[in-house]
Amino acid sequence: xxxxxxxxxxxxxxxxxxxxxxxxxxxxxxxxxxxxxxxxxxxxxxxxxxxxxxxxxxxxxxxxxxxxxxxxxxxxxxxxxxxxxxxxxxxxxxxxxxxxxxxxxxxxxxxxxxxxxxxxxxxxxxxxxxxxxxxxxxxxxxxxxxxxxxxxxxxxxxxxxxxxxxxxxxxxxxxxxxxxxxxxxxxxxxxxxxxxxxxxxxxxxxxxxxxxxxxxxxxxxxxxxxxxxxxxxxxxxxxxxxxxxxxxxxxxxxxxxxxxxxxxxxxxxxxxxxxxxxxxxxxxxxxxxxxxxxxxxxxxxxxxxxxxxxxxxxxxxxxxxxxxxxxxxxxxxxxxxxxxxxxxxxxxxxxxxxxxxxxxxxxxxxxxxxxxxxxxxxxxxxxxxxxxxxxxxxxxxxxxxxxxxxxxxxxxxxxxxxxxxxxxxxxxxxxxxxxxxxxxxxxxxxxxxxxxxxxxxxxxxxxxxxxxxxxxxxxxxxxxxxxxxxxxxxxxxxxxxxxxxxx
Length: 503
Ligand SMILES: [Zn+2]
Prior knowledge:
Layout: H1 2-19, E1 32-38, H2 44-50, E2 54-60, E3 63-68, H3 70-78, E4 83-89, H4 108-121, E5 126-133, E6 139-145, E7 157-162, H5 170-185, H6 190-198, E8 200-204, H7 209-214, H8 253-264, E9 267-274, E10 277-282, H9 301-312, H10 316-319, E11 328-330, H11 331-334, H12 341-349, E12 354-359, H13 369-385, E13 391-397, E14 407-410, E15 413-418, E16 425-428, E17 433-440, E18 447-454, E19 460-461, E20 464-466, H14 477-502
Parallel strand pairs: 7-8, 7-9, 9-12, 10-11, 13-19, 13-20
Antiparallel strand pairs: 1-3, 1-4, 2-3, 5-6, 6-8, 10-12, 13-16, 14-15, 14-17, 17-18
Helix pairs in contact: 5-13, 9-13
The structure holds zinc ion.
């Protein structure tokens, strides 16, 4: 079964080369040039983006980094751009396959060995699972760290994902440091112990193992994975939690793995790590119609800015950035991209994600890794702890007490979150204030709960018992059937409304 699935996805990956959702130009197979391109004027970045060039970073308003095939470079030069070649990919790094411990760059194999050892040494609080294979059949490892790791509990789910660009390995090692800190300090350090006991912490240190091994930004199909997620509205696949099927057909295998994994869970907060700059890049990366360089806010803009600052304020070089005030930037305001992972997580899964750039050099000297950890340790822990703010609770059926698959919104804010139907628990991150909570379940009376006060500390608990919309009295059978149809229709209408709201 697994081999059939892998085969199907491999075929899907290949066929995607013809279509490449989210990647207007590509795939970029063979040699890829890292180019430093002069921007002749303020409109040039938008033109390059619209032309489908793969923009990597942009720190200086006069220059931009572009990853280009030789043909694309020739086209840039023919169009009058001044272009300097900085490096070439793929450039397979020399790895010490026996590398062990912190502060060293790991290969896919040595990282795998470390993760297996961590899970084996800490069976009470760690589980190593694979989300599935990459194009070249390497595993996308996910380490779960929590108490009772085999049970679904009333705990928020959090994730860190790193290195979807294979040539940006600092985050992989920062995840390794964090794993080590959480597992080895558990039971002695009360802060870490509380975090592990109260949170389902997922860490995917290496989302693009093929890129890491080959020294490439792209996956083995030549695709930029952070341009290959379903986009909105061109690529609209529907909202999984609103009842639409998850359509991962034609997606890159690594993207499809993340889509399925995320859809099976209810992540509340997450971040993904990169290098090339030092900044927290927050939602949205793109809203259709808003040009690159212009702020594209979500309905949770103030909250998301506060979460971004939670990370940057604890990272002194990031907070002191001369390029990005306080070390944070809206994604679109920096430079917009389509098909990015963070926009998908928020729009389709109700999970707040952030794209965190850890270092200006793509791969700084290994000797600097302890310094990067010193700058990111408190940020990674504080951002993780922020998953416990806002409002939380359990939604159940008032008669049976069973957990429900519910949709929770805050009045005046269309962005929904969803319960985990196994336990019925939900988490709505919010800034301090007073809110009206709306809980909807198809076939149940909607509940509106005013005056819920949120403090700066731990989340306010709001458990909700839902009442079924009663059927008409069961006299003639035809009437009962009509009642069932009415309830079903009510559910359908509500689903449609959910979809409309998300639009
Ligand atoms: Zn990146």
